[in-house]
Amino acid sequence: MKKTIDTRGLPYPQPVVETKKALQEGDFTMLEVIVDNEISSRNVSRFATNSGFRVIAVEQIDENFRILIEADSEQSDILKEEKSGSGDFPGLVDKFKSKKIVISSDRLGSGDEELGKKLLQSFLYALTETSIQPSMLIFLNSGVKFCSLESGIIDILKKIQERGVEILVCSTSLDYYQMTGKLKIGKISNLFDITRQLLDTGEILSI
Question: Residue 51 phi/psi, 5° resolution?
């Protein structure tokens, strides 16, 4: 039985996330993934291959791409275990429970501003779709803008928070950008408490 998922119109990394969900569920002999750009086609194909599945074909049809992935019940079971956090990486899951991520900008990396914002949003979205979770997100400088905008990013941060991740937002940064009264998510914290959190036990990832 062939199963088809249409991810056209979805921003990165959602085509990969939807592919992963379908592969986890299994119950098909062939998975057909439809995407609307070559980059998503490559990302989906790479994810399937790296996850142990065989990509049968990648076809371009007009402006869209069609990826055919062969079913593998053993690999589907491995992905299910990874989703529950009981797979081959329990030590990695436990290690990340003590990791704190510092977000000090409203974009990821240097270069194009719009691209940087999309990349950071995609990074945060990816946190909602993996069993590996940090213990805390700390927003500083222009990073606080993500906590005060009424946009899709707030929904993403709410999902992260619901999974037990604490969100701290720098009060000095909120004051500087005149956003104190516009905070939509997270706990306002001062630099003394943030410094204490950063110097406390646990690893720090700064992006």
Answer: -90, 0
* CA–centroid distance for 118 within its chain: 12
Second CATH level (architecture) for the domain 92-206: 3-Layer(aba) Sandwich (3.40)
Record the tokens describing residue 102, joined without a space: 């510092």
User: CATH 3.30.110.40 region(s) of the chain?
Assistant: 2-77
Separation CA 176–CA 187 (nearest Å): 17
| pLDDT tens profile 136-149 | 999 999 999 989 87
Query: Rounded to two decimals, what is the model's pTM?
Result: 0.67
Q: What is the pLDDT of residues 101-111, one digit of tens each?
A: 999 998 888 88
Residues 6+ apart with CB under 8 A from 114: none
Angle, CA of 168, 13 and 35, to the nearest 5°: 160
Topology given in CATH for the domain delimited by 2-77: Translation Initiation Factor IF3 (3.30.110)
Closest CA to 88 of 76, 96, 74, 78: 78
Q: How far is CA 176 from CA 107, 140, 173, 192, in A?
A: 18, 11, 5, 17
